[in-house]
């Protein structure tokens, strides 16, 4: 957990603006000044500045997470605006990382936004992931999800992963370096191309991405602060039409190729064949 990096000697020298800005956090016994200092010292990489990444980025910035990286290679399009609330009509054609940064800085100019415009690839994924405490997957295709997940296993980074389709969302936290399952323990291999429709083919109710992105942000803050019960080892499934949440227990797979006893994952070279598909949006 990122909170383990806090050594107890971190300066609590908040200025008056920060004390006022984070007052409702500081009032919480589970957060307080030391917890807010943990948030300020933490770093989070958000992969994808789309439907999931938008509320995630905005809430991380509002919470005072000190360094937030965002990687995305797309530009804002009109069809994005039904769900990607970090972007606006007047920013159509703007790079999504730039648009998202404008929205996050408008909420909290004190956080550092690190923009990575472009695709996540097998060549850059490991270095990017290793540069942050926690990684959030906000992508919309299996090639990118598996690349992010494998990079997190190799870099020993906690992954907070969400997915949405139509009226349903799923969320989990993966930290095999702490003894829990990894993404491949749940999904050993990507499905064949074309088998599972994406949002562009099947559609998605816009607000579903907002709910799941906000839940992602909640789990990130819990991991940084070291509070509550982690979703590691559980898969949260939300059915918006039935207004029903379910939890499914996950277990490490001893035969997992990424984190199992005889894991064969040693680098990201196996992703080279799908590099052209690892866009994020």
Task: Summarize it.
This protein has 281 residues and is an alpha/beta fold.
For the structure shown, list the relevant keywords.
alpha/beta; 281 residues; 10 helices; Rossmann fold; single chain; 8 strands; eight-stranded mixed beta sheet; disordered N terminus
Can you give a write-up of this model?
- The structure is a single chain.
- The chain is of the alpha/beta class and 281 residues long.
- The chain is globular and about 55 Å long.
- The protein has an 8-stranded mixed sheet with strand order 3-2-1-4-5-6-7-8, sandwiched between helices.
- The protein starts with 15 loop residues before the first helix and ends in a 32-residue tail after the last strand.
- The protein has 10 helices and 8 strands.
- The model is unreliable at 1-10 and 276-281 (pLDDT under 50).
- It has one domain (2-277): Rossmann fold (3-Layer(aba) Sandwich), CATH 3.40.50.
């Amino acid at each position: 957990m990122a909170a383990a990096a806090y050594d107890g000697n971190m300066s609590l020298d908040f200025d008056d603006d920060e004390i006022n800005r984070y007052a409702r956090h500081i009032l919480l016994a589970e957060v307080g000044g030391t917890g807010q200092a943990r948030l300020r010292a933490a770093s989070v990489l958000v992969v994808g500045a789309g439907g999931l990444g938008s509320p995630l980025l905005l809430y991380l910035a509002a919470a005072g997470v000190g360094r937030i990286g965002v990687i995305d290679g797309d530009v804002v399009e009109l069809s994005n605006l039904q769900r990607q609330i970090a972007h606006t009509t007047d920013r159509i054609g703007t790079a999504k990382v730039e648009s998202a940064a404008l929205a996050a800085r408008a909420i909290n100019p004190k956080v550092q936004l690190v923009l990575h415009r472009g695709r996540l690839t097998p060549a850059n994924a490991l270095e990017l992931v290793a540069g942050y405490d926690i990684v959030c997957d906000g992508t919309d295709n299996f090639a990118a999800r598996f690349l992010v997940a494998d990079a997190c296993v190799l870099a020993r980074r906690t992954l907070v992963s969400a997915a949405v389709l139509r009226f349903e969302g799923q969320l989990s936290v993966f930290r095999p370096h702490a003894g829990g399952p990894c993404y491949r323990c749940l999904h050993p291999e990507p499905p064949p191309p074309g088998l599972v429709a994406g949002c562009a083919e099947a559609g998605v109710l816009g607000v579903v991405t907002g709910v799941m992105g906000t839940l992602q942000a909640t789990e990130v803050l819990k991991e940084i602060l070291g509070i509550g019960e982690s979703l590691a080892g559980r898969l949260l499934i939300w059915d918006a039409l039935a207004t029903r949440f379910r939890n499914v227990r996950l277990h490490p797979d001893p035969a997992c190729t990424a984190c199992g006893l005889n894991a064969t994952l040693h680098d990201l070279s196996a992703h080279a064949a799908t590099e052209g598909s690892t866009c994020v949006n």
